Amino acid sequence: MTTDRRLVIDTNLWISRLLVPDGVAAQAVDHGLAWGMPLMSQATLAELAEVLSRPRFDRWVTRAERQQFLRRLGGVVRVVTITQRVRVCRDPKDDKFLDVALTGEAQLIVTGDQELLALQPFHGIEILTPTAFSQKSKAEATCGKRLGCSPRPLYVR
């Protein structure tokens, strides 16, 4: 993990990482963990904990496994104290991811949320789908092994 690069991964991707470990979202989360430091706030962490506590997930993952996932996540992410708040999304619940990115000086947000994706880029922060981010991180990894290679930014949706 590179700590000089920071990113925000939205709640649905963390949940997908737990529920479908071989899926596209899980791959994006894994690439994100290798790419840089994931950022969260108390609000995004609380949202994740609340969603994971719902009984509808019981048939896929035990409550104990979900609690363990949250504990492990706490050792992987950096929780930032929000100092900048924005109100730009139609759904105000989406603004908290922008708040984290701005406060934590993230370079990118990985999300499947169409409203957030429509803001691409937001104050210089790339907003990418899981697929686009995975492609970008693979290209950067491959490019980094060749002298003089410069990966093009991906704005694939």
What is shown here, in short?
The protein has 157 residues and is of the alpha/beta class. It has seven helices and five strands, in the order E-H-H-E-H-H-E-H-E-H-E-H.
Overall pLDDT confidence: 86
Strand order of the largest sheet: 3-2-1-4-5
Q: Approximately how much helix is present in the residues?
A: 40-55%
Element order, helices and strands?
Answer: EHHEHHEHEHEH
Tertiary shape: globular
The fraction of residues in strands falls at 5-15%
Structural class estimated from helices and strands: alpha/beta
Cα-atom radius of gyration: 15 Å
Biggest sheet layout: 5 strands, parallel
Supply the number of helical segments: 7
Q: Determine the N-to-C terminus distance.
A: 25 Å
How many beta-strand elements? Answer: 5
Oligomer: single chain
Pick out the low-confidence regions: 146-157
Description:
This protein is 45% helix and 10% strand. It has a five-stranded parallel sheet with strand order 3-2-1-4-5. It is globular, with a radius of gyration of 15 Å. Mean pLDDT is 86; it is low at 146-157. Helix 1 crosses helix 2, helix 1 runs parallel beside helix 3 and helix 2 crosses helix 7. It has seven helices and five strands. By secondary structure, it is α/β, with parallel strands linked by helices. It starts with 5 loop residues before the first strand and ends in a 14-residue tail after the last helix. The chain has helices at 11-19, 24-35, 42-52, 63-74, 95-103, 114-117, 130-143; strands at 6-9, 37-40, 78-79, 108-110, 126-128.
